[in-house]
Amino acid sequence: MPNALTRKQFLKRTAALAATSWLPRMSRAEARKLRMIEVAPGLFVHQGVHELVSPANAGDISNLSLIIGRDALAVVDTGGSAAIGRGFLAAIRAISDKPIRYVINTHMHPDHVFGNAPFVAEKATFVAHHKMARGLAARADTYLRNNLRLIGEEAFAGSEIVLPTDPVKEPRDIDLGERVITLVPRPTAHTDNDLTILDKSTGTLIAGDLLFSGHIPTLDGSIVGWLALIEVLRKEEAARVVPGHGPASMSWPDSLDPMERYLRSIADDVRTMIKENKTLTEATKTAGASEKDKWLLADEFHVRNVTAAFAELEWE
Amino acid sequence: MKRYSRSPVAALGAALVALALSMAPVFAQDDEAAQPPGWDGIKKEYYDGREIEEVKTGLVVEAPDKADDAAVVPVTVYINSDLADNIKTLRVFIDNNPMPLVGAFTFGRAAGIGPKTISTRVRFDSFSYIRAVIETMDGKLHMASHFVQAAGGCSSSALKDVATAAAGAGQMLVKKVSKGQRFASQQHQSMVTAEAQVMLRHPNFSGMQMDPATGKYIPAKYVQELDVTRLGELVFHMEAGISLSTNPNIRFTYGSVENETLEAKASDSDGATFSATSANNS
Q1: Regions of chain A short of the pLDDT cut 50
Q2: Mean pLDDT, all residues of chain B
Q3: Confidence of residue B33 (pLDDT cuts 50, 70, 90)
Q4: Do the chains contact at A221 and B161, CB–CB below 8 Å?
Q5: CATH for A4-210?
Q6: Do A315 and B155 touch (CB under 8 A)?
Q7: What is the pLDDT of residue B180?
Q8: Of A271, A316, B119, B280, which has the highest C-beta tally within 10 A?
């Protein structure tokens, strides 16, 4: 069940939405089955588009994964709206009718969690980093309001905050039946509640937004923490990786390189400018300039990344 | 509204408290945000509806047209010598924030003479003008403004990394950032205009942010007063509202003499106090 904390609030705010879900044209989004790619035996990925969330994409901008064990299924992230969650569920049911035992969220961001609601009826356990409930609950109002505005009443109908019921504080193995996956809560990097999933049978690392490719990385945690974590991740063995944004599957660990270059250029430039007593405004104009144009959506997120990095690094 | 009869600072403080009190029930409730008073309301509240001249040069508000992070929008107010040397108060407003007064500044001798610059970072609740209004000694009002497209900054969660923020809470720094230059009006003075910065690690809770542990709004707790002095002489006094970003950061010009230290003292709406002194060699 969704956590009672925020239920009152989102009920209030989404009451109007619920009414619109009866509109016949909603069924179009509802029926749209997401396309899945089998990137390793029994591991399917749906690839999101590199766009801002919009009524047209209904929040389908992040990668979603399905892991199939002998007895049960685990789902990793659910997309940016209930409509995408339903499309994901429909795609899963076309592949397997085993029970969905776990819905794992890699972190709190709206494009990864707003598809959770349709999985409540599947009686899944909602699993996430132990800090995710706090982070998501604190932002629940803002996330609901903003995404309703950006995605629109029709496409966002039925979307709600479903908080994790099973917090992960220490690395932990989950057995889906002859298929063990390892969940590792990470220190603050992309956010303060990033969780990675390693599918041991195929050596596939599901990195969530600790790995971006194509879509510019977005910083909502700690640039120092993220750069340090990249060095740790680099030493971990995997046959392939599923990024939070990017291709369904990438090689490992070289897929980290472009993102690390981008983050490092911001950190280096911002540190230099702080040392020279330059201002935040000046930093937003020049820091990371050499790397930012290599990414999609740079105009939307780069200045924000520099702002966050500056606010963090000026306290070093 | 009646005309202020007490000292401007005391009156300002009273107005701020009155405003804070009138806002308090709104923050406490699980409701839509209060309707901000808008520019007309601000004019009435703070200036008794007096005429305010829009200044084309001499007073400039610099801010991005479209802010990427509505919770950290950099803003700089530039004031030329003519206005700066006759300044009584500077107030900065964001029309559409629930508490529009960002900060009210009064200046002392150590602010020096010649042009002034003040920069900080602010929150925007919705698209709005940000304005700087200066009252000069002759009682005239001067204004400059800038429209910023940014929204959600007052309610967005204050802290990206809760644990690190808690560890550093209360830490305060004041540091000189440039030795400064001599302006025409300072030719015969022993002083130049230098620049310094105050930083305070403080969540500056707006009252519009959610507490995940209780599902209720975190009560407003924000930096309310800041005094910066140069060897005991006032540079400026600021009274602030909820619109300053988390970890308030104020960069300002002041009149630099040789080997001075700067002292900063702040207090928040819960009565907690913070202080810092600059190194005098920088």
Answers
A1: 1-30
A2: 84
A3: very low
A4: yes
A5: 3.60.15.10
A6: no
A7: 78
A8: B119
- Give the pLDDT mean for B67-94: 94
Could you tell me the domains of chain B?
8-277 (2.60.40.2470)
Report yes or no: B161 at the A interface, CB cutoff 8 Å.
yes
Domain positions in chain A: 4-210
**A142 HSE (CA, 13 A, CB side):** 25
pLDDT of residue B12: 41
Interface test with A, best of B31, B125, B164, B201 (most A CBs within 10 A): B164
The rounded distance, in Å, linking the Cα atoms of B164 and B160 is 9
Please compute the mean of the pLDDT values over residues B112-119 and round it to a whole number. Answer: 94
- Judge if ipTM > 0.90: no
Residues of chain B with Cβ-Cβ distance to A142 below 8 Å are 152, 155-157
How many angstroms separate the most distant Cα atoms in chain B? Answer: 61
User: Is A141–B155 a contact, with Cβ atoms under 8 angstroms apart?
Assistant: yes
- Predicted confidence band of residue B35 (pLDDT cuts 50, 70, 90): low
Q: Record the pTM.
A: 0.83
Q: Which of B68, B76, B163 sits opposite A303 (nearest CB)?
A: B68
The size of the A-B interface in CB pairs under 8 A is: 101
Dihedral Cα B228, B232, B235, B236, nearest 10 deg: 50
Residues of chain B contacting A167 with CB distance shorter than 8 Å: none
